Amino acid sequence: MGKAGLPVSPLAPASFPELPVIAGVEFSSGAAGVKYQGRTDVTLIRIAEGSSIAGAFTKSSTRAACVLDNQAKLAQNADTNAGAAIIVNSGNANAFTGARGLESVAAVTGAVADALGLPQNRVFSSSTGVIGEPLPHDRIIAIVGDLKAGLDEAGVAAAARAIMTTDTFPKGASATVKGDGGQIRIAGIAKGSGMIAPDMATMLVYIFTDARISAPLLQGALVGGLASTFNAITVDSDTSTSDALIVAATGRSDAAEITDLSSTEGQAFVAALHGVMRELAQLVVRDGEGASKFVEIQVTGAASEDDAHRVAMAVANSPLVKTAIAGEDANWGRIVAAVGKSGAEADRDLLKISFGDMVLAEKGWRSPGYDEEKASAYMKNQNLIIGVDLGLGQGARTVWTCDLTHGYIDINADYRS
Amino acid sequence: MGKAGLPVSPLAPASFPELPVIAGVEFSSGAAGVKYQGRTDVTLIRIAEGSSIAGAFTKSSTRAACVLDNQAKLAQNADTNAGAAIIVNSGNANAFTGARGLESVAAVTGAVADALGLPQNRVFSSSTGVIGEPLPHDRIIAIVGDLKAGLDEAGVAAAARAIMTTDTFPKGASATVKGDGGQIRIAGIAKGSGMIAPDMATMLVYIFTDARISAPLLQGALVGGLASTFNAITVDSDTSTSDALIVAATGRSDAAEITDLSSTEGQAFVAALHGVMRELAQLVVRDGEGASKFVEIQVTGAASEDDAHRVAMAVANSPLVKTAIAGEDANWGRIVAAVGKSGAEADRDLLKISFGDMVLAEKGWRSPGYDEEKASAYMKNQNLIIGVDLGLGQGARTVWTCDLTHGYIDINADYRS
After folding, report:
1. Do B179 and B318 share a structural domain?
2. Where does the record place the catalytic residues (chains A, B) (predicted)?
3. Measured between alpha carbons, how far is residue A344 from residues A350, A391, B141 in Å?
4. CB-based contact A339 B100, cutoff 8 Å
């Protein structure tokens, strides 16, 4: 069972992966009782002096107090010689909590700054859970001392658990890449399973690396990967108030500093970082509320990249497509309808729809080779690939989603209480 | 039980209404066995000579063959002295059926034209049901003779039943309005319960009136009402390939011809027509697949009308809002999140959210007068009003939707088979 008492997603990996230790990053988790009882719900992460920090956040116009605070602090271009910290709680999102919400953020990040001897503008925070309830920040502040005492470079798996809400499994991913003169390690954790339709960043994601790289270059590497990773997933078309992705680079690797993202080492680092981002994004979909199928939507031949994204998201968010997948019904007509409503340029007579290697529809109607039995058999797979070729241009986009099942209704008709 | 074997929606009216006879309009329904067995599935409607016809159709780029055909015929500005006919089948949408789909439309409308002695460009058609299967049009043509024999001005209720697919109850609405020198009667029927997020028109809707009014004026009256009726509802955010709304005015009323929509009589007619459109639109939501609650979303104070529509639809389509309503959970934080993702201009600290007369949130956080118990009690109602005031400008829009329940998954994970 996951922390919220839900059965573990059938799409979960067998176990939490072995993540490499990132020198200069320590974790500590504890139970503050913010909302949940009998589980950890706060994680403190200390990042060593000399680290670069980058971040991306939700574009929601009702974003949470901690998101606004993180954005303001990152925009200040704070002294990169100082250390940094991130404190995260689950159980309460501290979103739509007005002036009191900002006071809570100031109180919590102030307490962490005092305890760790850091400037307050290098202490970032995230809160995830219910929207609109005041955050009982005293409960978090009360355990900051204990959290500090427990800081440990090996604490990443416990941190991945403490930040879960309706998640049914903890999510981690890593990569190791050859730098100039040594290995560079990347390790990340994420939480998220509902309210997932990221817009610039998503959910809560923390990625750490020992690479030596400046904050502006790290930010560039991060932003360049968003479109094909966190902005390419959706569980339920609902964008969170609290999406936050923070990347910290400690510079403790033996490899030389990355000063150019287009160098061989720069490209290798960017590719590895994006690989970790993609894996974490896909893990969030694999823990999509009630999910029983993991679905890749490959759109090609669109008139533009924007059109490809529009079509891919229209298919991925269509409740009718998602329920057909849940019912293992090869109902490709609903994909046609989703393409039609997307607003993207489309020509019915050029449209081609395929499941895996099987072409179901082309040239404006059912493919002559269409085999209902084979199509239905394909739908029994746990991992599905839906191809939509618009036949118009070079625009392409791949996105990931899950099906819409009774489990989603169970979880969301009764989450808050 | 409805025709598809589903229990009747708890939001259904007690019975099908008494609709006034519209002189010059006859209906006949029969069982062609297009897909369903043991029920009627084809309706023929004959409209007398001298009638004006207007229409509005889906904007989907993958619209069905019959929609394309209707649009082409209406654009030809066909001779309004000739009579007209509409033939409708359920069980197969004849959408994404390529050249063969157009052949089916030509065959069916040609057979009706021959049988009734009408020019073929005055025979309109609609098909609703599964997408992507060839329409077995011979089965429809085989009963056209029987349908002709059964034409009857009193056949409207049977027609409302024959056009149902996953609908659980037949839908009708009417109005009578004082014209210049006599009464004008309006009667309409509709079908629709899933794939409902109209874009210009919706589902299948047929409205008849004995008003004397030219086709261009009738079209103007129709189009002016779309934004606040059919384009203001959503069940599941999925736009159909087959949405069609046709209005016919037979001119058989004793009232004088309406030659100006802004005259007293013109305004009364337009208001009555829009009232019938709104009632039919709301009936579609009341038959939303799996619906247990009817929800009105009132957005006010938006920076523009477009923004008001965007916010209203973001709230109405949010799976998290809809599942919270299904669970009778006053989880207004999900409404905040939906406003935030809508893309409309919003200021967290000006936003006000209310349920009925109860203000839940204002000035950036929970209202001081918020009473969880009262809010929860309100959610037990079958008809709910959610108010969102953005506090920015004059833009306002009201839309209607339903909740998202296990029933929706039941119906759609297994509809086609």
Report:
1. no
2. 202 (nucleophile)
3. 14, 13, 36
4. no
A207: domain CATH number is 3.60.70.12
- Nearby residues of B126 by Cβ (< 8 Å), 6 or more positions away: B66, B67, B70, B86, B87, B88, B89, B163, B204, B242, B244
| Residues forming beta bridges with residue B29, ordered by sequence position | B43
Measured distance CA(A179)–CA(B296) in Å, rounded = 58
Q: Which residue has the tokens 């929509």?
A: B261
Query: Do A73 and A162 reside in the same domain of the chain?
Result: yes
CA distance, residue A69 to nearest chain B CA (Å)? 15
Tens of pLDDT along chain A (417 residues) come to 344 567 888 888 999 999 999 999 999 999 999 998 999 999 999 999 989 999 888 888 888 889 999 999 988 866 667 899 999 999 999 988 888 999 999 999 999 999 999 999 999 999 998 888 899 999 999 999 999 999 999 999 999 999 998 888 999 999 999 888 889 999 999 888 877 776 645 578 889 899 999 888 898 888 888 888 888 888 887 777 778 888 889 889 999 999 999 999 999 999 999 999 899 888 888 988 889 999 999 999 999 999 999 999 999 999 999 999 999 999 998 999 899 889 899 998 899 999 999 999 998 888 988 998 999 999 999 999 999 999 999 999 999 999 999 988 888 887 554
170-199 of B, contacting A, C-beta below 8 A: 194-195, 197, 199
Interhelix angle B264-286/B215-226, rounded to 10 degrees, is 50
Judge whether A289 is annotated as a binding position. Answer: yes
Q: Give the CATH number of the domain where residue A371 resides.
A: 3.10.20.340
**Dist CA B20 CA B177 (whole Å):** 12
Q: Is residue B372 part of a domain?
A: yes
Question: How distant is the Cα of B340 from the closest Cα of chain A, in angstroms?
Answer: 4
Report yes or no: B349 at the A interface, CB cutoff 8 Å: yes
Asked if B404's CB is within 8 angstroms of A340's CB, the reply is no
Does residue A372 sit at the B interface (CB-CB below 8 Å)?
Answer: no
Radius of gyration of chain B (CA): 22
CB atoms within 10 A of CB A80: 17
Taking the CA of residue A147 and the nearest CA in chain B, the distance in Å comes to 30
Overall number of domains in chain B: 2
Q: Would residue B271 count as lying in a domain?
A: yes
Answer whether A408 touches B (CB < 8 Å). Answer: yes
Q: Which amino acid, B46?
A: R
Shared domain check, A324 and A180: no
| A122 lies in the same domain as A203 | yes
Contact (CB<8Å) A365/B101: yes
Match 């009936």 to its residue by tokens: B283
Residue B42 maps to a domain: yes
A55 and A103 co-located in one domain? yes
Q: Which amino acid is at A84?
A: A
**Separation of alpha carbons B292 and B322, rounded Å:** 11
Q: Given A130, A318, A366, which is nearest B238 (Cβ)?
A: A318
Full domain range(s) for residue B82: 25-286
A388 and A313 within one domain = yes
Q: Which residue out of A242, A335, A365 would a mutagenesis test of the B interface target, given it has the greatest number of B Cβ atoms within 10 Å?
A: A365
Question: A238 and B341: CB-CB below 8 Å?
Answer: yes
Catalytic option among B40, B128, B202, B234: B202
B372 at A interface, C-beta within 8 A: no
Q: Are residues B227 and B363 in the same domain?
A: no
**Which of B133, B333, B341 is opposite residue A96, by nearest beta carbon?**
B333
- Residue A15 domain-assigned? no
Is A401 designated active site?
no
Burial (CB < 10 A; 0-12, 13-18, 19+), residue A148, is middle
- Residue among B334, B344, B363 whose CB faces A131 most closely: B334
CB-CB contact of B105 with B140 (8 Å): no
User: Considering B286, B305, B324, which residue would you say is the last residue of a domain?
Assistant: B286
Q: Active-site residue among A43, A97, A202, A209? A: A202
The verdict on B273 and B309 lying in the same domain is: no
